[in-house]
Amino acid sequence: MRAFVFNLLSIVCAVNCLAQGERNNWFFGDSIGITFNTGSPTLLNNITARSNEPAAAISTKNGTLLFYGTSYHPSVGSDITRCYNAGHTTLQNANGLFGSSSVTQGQIILSNPANSNSYYLFSISYQQSLGAGLFYNTIDMLLDSGLGAVVQKNVLLCDTVVIEKMTAVKHGNGRDWWLLVHSFVSNDFYEYLITPAGITGPTVLSVGSCIGCNNTYDQGQMVFSKDGSKLCMANTYGILEVFDFDRCTGSLTLNLNLGIPYNPLDGWTTFYGCSFSADGQVLYASRFDTLWQYNLNASNVKASRLYLMGLDNAQYCVAQHMIGPDNKIYICLCRNSFSNDSLDYKLSVINYPDSVGYACDLRPHSIWLGGHRSRGGLPNLPHYELGPLTGSLCDTLAGINDINDAKLLLYPNPANKWLMINGKWLNGLPFTLTVYDVLGKTHLAQNTHTTTIDISTLTPGLYVLRLQQGDKMYYGRFVKE
Questions:
Q1: Which of 30, 159, 241, 337 gets the highest tally of CB atoms within 10 A of its CB?
Q2: Mean pLDDT for the chain?
Q3: Tell me: the pLDDT tens digits for 141-161?
Q4: Which among 15, 35, 17, 105 is positioned nearest to 380, based on CA atoms?
């Protein structure tokens, strides 16, 4: 049997992988487990959970597995969607979860901003099945002797049919989450905001191509860049779009349309997999038969497309991509049922994804999976390690705890109509004043000399006031009654 071999990573990379370990453990395909806890990906033994396309996992910051989700279709019966604990047995009360084995990004796990021991598992059910839509479950890791248990189960979040795409990114405050799905036969993204107060939404963002129009299918990945500023959506019938994303407001703007219009005479023009390099400047996208690279800094991005790999699509499909904790990109294959060889016993890896051209060092079919098939899916892992958008107006959590908070005295507090700033130290010089809520929404913004602020138009709640004078910033908190 071929050994599972990787180039040695630097000590710095290994330390970073361990320090930000929420994404370090992967479970997917036909009973495959991989851990990045030593810096290099290593196969895990005795994994029994199986999954087709959908999979998800969550670990602690130091890389200790908490739980993971799978969904597969047994040889007899209907799809089985389930969660497994760190001991690789079924999570308590996790039988009978809604989901489907044939949804590209059918599961995702997000930490609960209100409770460090609580998590959400979101799932998409198969579109033509009873109860199709978006669901969530909550998991309490303090139950079952620390192995965790499902405490809320199959809660319907959206009863509109959503397509096979689901992803999430940290809010600009570094704590909350934006969750995105997409509706069918429309260009509508459904966006949910997850805060300590719960799940709100959806906000409908109508942008980009119509998915499902003209009887097109809806398979394909939707992924954020590592810094959360870009979103790529790959879809059948030639749709490949890159959007700009604002982590503060949740707004989405179409930046690039790299798609290829469908033409049956041209063969496969469908896109399925996509991934960004760690610096967000290089995009990798795959059709069912080919893998391509795009230089997002090129003057003509579409023309920068570089062919990296091809397959005989009658036998295999290039399937999902995932950037690893080591910043390499891993790519799996999906075997057609009548193929008997073993390409999908291996992953392909791009060793230097930030490098444009063949210097990216694609190694096709180079990582042995121990005799287990990948089945086309990889775990749907958001960038849990992403912190606040430093210096932005929505970096409110850092602002609330800023060391200059003590210097900026606000009174009365709570206040009703007028808020006073103890500002003798401002020396009568002008300053910029911004008032925003704890989700980063700006409510007041002005250049002023006065230290008496009219807050009568604010609704009751907790606010952050930021005062900037020159290159110095000061923060204070107040409550509007």
A1: 241
A2: 86
A3: 999 999 999 999 999 999 888
A4: 105
- Cβ proximity of 468 and 429 under 8 Å: no
Q: Please name the amino acid found at residue 268.
A: W
Greatest Cα pair distance, the chain, in angstroms, is 80
Whose structure tokens read 């509109």?
Answer: 160
Residue type, 197: A
Pairing mode, strands 461-469 and 472-480: antiparallel
**Tokens 């507090």 label which residue?**
413
Q: What is the pLDDT of residues 211-269, one digit of tens each?
A: 887 666 678 999 999 999 999 999 877 889 999 999 988 999 999 999 876 665 555 56
State if pTM tops 0.90: no
Q: Which helix (H) or strand (E) holds 23?
A: none
d(CA 26, CA 256): 31
**Above 50 in pLDDT, residue 6?**
no
C-beta of residue 97 within 8 angstroms of C-beta of residue 106? no
Residue 292: closest CA among 223, 360, 218: 360
Burial class (CB in 10 A: 0-12, 13-18, 19+), 265: exposed
390 exposure class (CB count in 10 Å sphere: 0-12, 13-18, 19+): exposed
User: How many Cα neighbours within 13 Å face the side chain of 372?
Assistant: 23
Distance CA 132, CA 130 (A): 6
Residue 290 CA neighbour count, 13 Å, CB half: 11
SS3 call for 168: strand
